[in-house]
């Protein structure tokens, strides 16, 4: 029963977070912003106001595939947000520009996350192989190695939280200061940003829970050997 509840949490929590994002986005993508600027115009205006003239704004394929690429210094917005004039489009565009501002200022958590990328990538790719091998062969040392690799990926996800929340806070400050949204639109903008942040919280919570489960498994394996 305990394992069923555990796996239910692993499945339900991320799904719930995704549904919240889609629901908020669907609702506020139909609400035009008072400024009537497209997402690309919102991004460009915030970038220019912060002296980031060298950062490009490009359209990208997909739905909610918006992101900031620090390597090419480019804010990429999905088509609906690039061309859209909604509250949701403005919120998401401003959020991605928040990452560009972090990059320009050398925001500590963002720099730390970038440094962890290769380690986290290796950890996520190899941890499960080592963990499964350790469990099947009853080798505690191999299981521990897998846990260490997994821990690197988990740290990456945890560090992502302050990066995302800070970008959202910067986004709210920018759209308010530049008059891109009115007072009655602030609540809607926050709902879009908070819903998006929930996906990162859910992912981090599930990752930590999984790591804890394998740590307890390792402790139990060592105790049984004694």
From TrEMBL:
<dbReference type="InterPro" id="IPR007395">
    <property type="entry name" value="Zn_peptidase_2"/>
</dbReference>
<feature type="transmembrane region" description="Helical">
    <location>
        <begin position="115"/>
        <end position="136"/>
    </location>
</feature>
<keyword id="KW-1133">Transmembrane helix</keyword>
<feature type="transmembrane region" description="Helical">
    <location>
        <begin position="6"/>
        <end position="25"/>
    </location>
</feature>
<dbReference type="Pfam" id="PF04298">
    <property type="entry name" value="Zn_peptidase_2"/>
</dbReference>
<protein>
    <recommendedName>
        <fullName>Zn-dependent protease</fullName>
    </recommendedName>
</protein>
<feature type="transmembrane region" description="Helical">
    <location>
        <begin position="142"/>
        <end position="163"/>
    </location>
</feature>
<keyword id="KW-0472">Membrane</keyword>
<keyword id="KW-0812">Transmembrane</keyword>
<feature type="transmembrane region" description="Helical">
    <location>
        <begin position="192"/>
        <end position="216"/>
    </location>
</feature>
